[in-house]
Write a structure and sequence with these properties.
By secondary structure, this protein is α+β, with helices and mostly antiparallel strands. The strands form 7 sheets. A 6-stranded mixed β-sheet has the order 7-4-6-5-9-8, with no helix packed on it. Helix 1 packs parallel to helix 6 and helix 4 crosses helix 5. The longest helix is centred in the last third of the chain and has 19 residues. It starts with a helix and ends with a strand.
């Protein structure tokens, strides 16, 4: 049985980043950037007004000013002012060289004259204050979110180089599972893993197909036939008489690298590789499922996309103690302003903590006392 660190190390030695391809910016959400993106011009590219107000010469000591014009966003004309002259200016408009902007709230206008209650405040976004031409504004390895897309658009990067889209397949196994919309009969349970995996995949920009099959090798073999990139199988990962995931993956040509991990919840985890394709046999209990997706599948997905080889571990202090276990535990928690608040859970099948959890705390076998500094990952 491998430790978490051993599994990460094994993956680090086997996962290769996929080829980088150009994609439309609107299709890049959830992908990993494979190039450093530089800004071709200063950001901002010119001095811009940060407020609605008036602009005057900064060296003009006049006490009242005659309003002689207006400068609006997009106005590229060269504006000059004589002593005692001012112009109205809108947020985002170009500030004339040597100009000072006074916000509207500090102005008293009467007809075409204006006086100011105070001056000398810098209401100008100066050229290059965000970045200089040639600066890297987004580095290779960045996971592209909505904010990244806005940033790339602002510097004219409309076809970024990213890892090509992966073909992902999720197969939920088990004779006892029924659709979440159904009322389960005696001995049946609603399928929570399929919606869970679908939401996880969507948040990572994955296009994923999903199937549900019975608890037999032939059904699973047919379901995964021809799949090439990322395969996730829910259930069948343990050692029971009907647990056939390892057998089917082995017959399909996958090299089985992991069969058990010293982690709680999530011990019966299968990891297989076939060329560039990766397969995971995930434990059927949903909390175990959740932990394995974030601790192990995310690591492979990151490396395939050219990113880091393990989840980004943060640190914070615990508000209350958590008990240890012979296996390392990844404990659902809420990140609060004063640290991490561990949530109650009873078993690997208990999803109730995930209603509010936004973190998984890494708990060593010895446990952690209240106030101790703990490693954790965000689970957004």
């Amino acid at each position: 049985m491998k430790t978490v660190e051993e599994v990460w190390g094994l993956l680090r030695g086997h996962v290769m980043a996929r080829e980088a391809v150009e994609t439309e910016l609107t299709d890049a959400l959830g992908a990993v950037l494979r190039e450093d993106v530089k800004t071709p011009e200063d950001q901002p590219a010119f001095d811009r007004s940060a407020v609605d107000g008036f602009v005057v010469r900064a060296d003009d000591p006049s006490e009242s000013f005659r309003v002689v014009g207006e400068i609006r966003p997009g106005d590229g004309r060269r504006h000059t002012f004589a002593a005692g002259e001012a112009a109205r200016i809108a947020t985002g408009a170009a500030v004339p060289e040597g100009g000072e902007v006074i916000m509207l709230e500090d102005a008293e206008a009467s007809g075409d004259m204006v006086r100011f209650a105070r001056r000398g405040l810098d209401h100008v976004r100066r050229r290059g204050e965000d970045a200089k031409a040639g600066d890297v504004v987004a580095s290779a390895g960045t996971l592209i979110g909505a904010g990244t897309i806005g940033l790339l658009a602002s510097v004219g990067c409309v076809r970024p180089k990213v890892t090509r889209a992966l073909d992902a397949l999720h197969v939920a196994t088990g004779n006892e599972i029924v659709g979440a919309e159904q009322s389960p009969s005696a001995g049946q349970v609603r399928d929570s893993n399929s919606p869970l995996v679908a939401a996880w995949a969507r948040s990572r920009g994955l296009r994923i197909r999903q199937k549900r099959v019975g608890e037999d090798a032939d059904s699973l073999r047919r379901a995964i036939e021809g799949h090439r990139d990322l395969l996730l199988v829910s259930g069948g990962a343990s050692v029971g008489g009907y647990d056939c995931t390892e057998e089917v993956l082995d017959a399909a040509g996958f090299e089985i690298l992991v069969t058990k991990v010293a982690v709680r919840p999530g011990k019966p985890l299968i990891v297989g590789r076939r060329g560039e394709a990766w397969a995971f046999g995930l434990p059927g209990n949903p909390l175990s499922h959740f932990v394995c997706l974030h601790v192990f599948v995310d690591a492979v997905l990151s490396m395939i996309r050219g990113g880091p080889a393990a989840p980004m571990l943060r640190k914070a202090r615990l508000s209350s103690s958590v008990a240890g276990n012979p296996r390392e535990t990844w404990w659902p928690a809420v990140e609060e302003t004063n640290g991490l608040h561990p949530l109650a859970w009873t078993s690997s099948g208990d999803l109730t903590a995930l209603a509010t959890a936004d973190a998984l705390v890494r708990v060593p076998p010895s446990g952690l006392a209240a106030g101790a500094e703990a490693e954790f990952i965000r689970i957004t």
